[in-house]
């Protein structure tokens, strides 16, 4: 038998990765890069769950009732997480910017009408000139927190945090406790 590989995110509408570099322009033959972090919002998690459920039923229909029960519980958890995030963010103004080291939260920002402000783009540490620009923008926006990931270097974020006397909050988009992780993200942003 062959192993089946299924794209669980096939029904997720992809968004473009946004850069904080004003000078970055695409050539006429370049397409914007699409954000791969599709699992960072309950709306997309529900779509991913549906694809998994449908695939399991397709290849193992005998256990459909078992899969359906688990799928329904999963969807309920995603919906509850969405409701809790909205409650946490209820006093956060639409368009609020939050600073992230790595731009992994674009779908979350998109769904909750926020804007992530990345320090690095495409895994590259910011250069001194870019750090200066980020510092100026963070001061202007009165940013209180920088969100980082344990999977990436903290050096650039720590320089900015020390300069602005703000805190660094580590949140990984790869955390398997996805619901609590998204709630922690919302809490960090709401205090920004």
Give structural notes.
The chain is built from 6 helices and 4 strands; from the N terminus they run H-H-E-H-E-H-E-H-E-H. Helix 5 links the parallel strand 3 and strand 4. 45% of the residues lie in helices and 8% in strands. The protein has 192 residues and is of the alpha/beta class. A 4-stranded parallel sheet has the order 2-1-3-4.
The rounded distance between the terminal residues' Cα atoms is: 52 Å
- The arrangement of helices and strands along the chain is HHEHEHEHEH
Overall 3D form: elongated
Q: Round the mean pLDDT to the nearest integer and report it.
A: 86
Let me know the number of strands: 4
Class by helix and strand content?
Answer: alpha/beta
**How many alpha or pi helices?**
6
Major sheet, described briefly? 4 strands, parallel
Sheet-strand content, in percent, reads 5-15%
As an assembly, this protein is single chain
Low-confidence stretches: 20-28
User: Percent of residues in helical segments?
Assistant: 40-55%
Strand order in space, largest sheet: 2-1-3-4
Rg for CA atoms: 19 Å
Short description:
This protein is an alpha/beta fold. Helix content is 45%, strand content 8%.
Give me some keywords for this one.
192 residues; single chain; four-stranded parallel beta sheet; alpha/beta; 6 helices; elongated
Q: What topology does this entry show?
A:
Layout: H1 42-59, H2 64-88, E1 97-100, H3 106-111, E2 115-118, H4 128-141, E3 145-148, H5 155-164, E4 167-170, H6 178-190
Parallel strand pairs: 1-2, 1-3, 3-4
Helix pairs in contact: 1-2, 2-6, 4-5
